[in-house]
Amino acid sequence: MSRFLFPRWSNALLPTLMVVGGLLPLYVVLFVAYGFSPKTLEVGYEPPQPVPFSHALHAGELGMDCRYCHNTVEKAAHAAVPPTQTCMNCHKWVRPESPKLEKVKESYETGMPIDWIYVNKIADYSYFNHSAHVNRGVGCVECHGRVDQMEVVYRHEPLSMGWCLDCHRNPTDRLRPVSEITNLAYDQRTELTYEERVALKDLYHINPSENCSTCHR
Questions:
Q1: Measured between alpha carbons, how far is 205 from 187 in angstroms, rounded to an integer?
Q2: In whole angstroms, what is the distance from residue 73 CA to residue 183 CA?
Q3: Which residues pair with 175 in a beta bridge?
Q4: Using CA atoms, how far apart are residues 192 and 198, in angstroms rounded to an integer?
Q5: pTM of the prediction?
Q6: pLDDT tens across 189-215, in order?
Q7: What is the distance between the alpha carbons of residues 121 and 128, in angstroms, rounded to a whole number?
């Protein structure tokens, strides 16, 4: 049995193998950091919903205010998913025979909720309060994008820790008058001067925390 595990000519490859081996952990770290980040895995997430509800039609063309359906957004941590009764407030009279409403009518008749699929959902170990943001001039569009232009809602932002911290460190450009929080077409960067946005920061007493316990309780 030879006392050499590999042929002698393989010795010439050792320097190359050592360099590649030394860089391999770096490649792995970069691959994991980027390849498994919320930005690459979840931005653009667009699951098919059990009912083909068009935000482009309701929030866009018809101009329905976000708060009609998500009616707890100003007073609770969670923006409520509307119950079937909310849908039927209109659809008892509006296109009640549409085949798209079959599951809505079934839910209304049986009392069983529709199994909507969450699109913008943060991890269970993180805490986010909608009311704390919208009541201080952070509009829906900052996190959810132009939902009024989406036929099927998709995740517009990564909602990652780094992304949230970027806003907490530089909130000024994300602020608008509270009266405009559901106006998705409103762009405070063009509608307001920088000084006016700073004035809003002072008016709403905004001093975002960067402490871990703010979101991880």
A1: 21
A2: 14
A3: 138
A4: 10
A5: 0.80
A6: 999 999 999 999 999 999 999 999 999
A7: 10
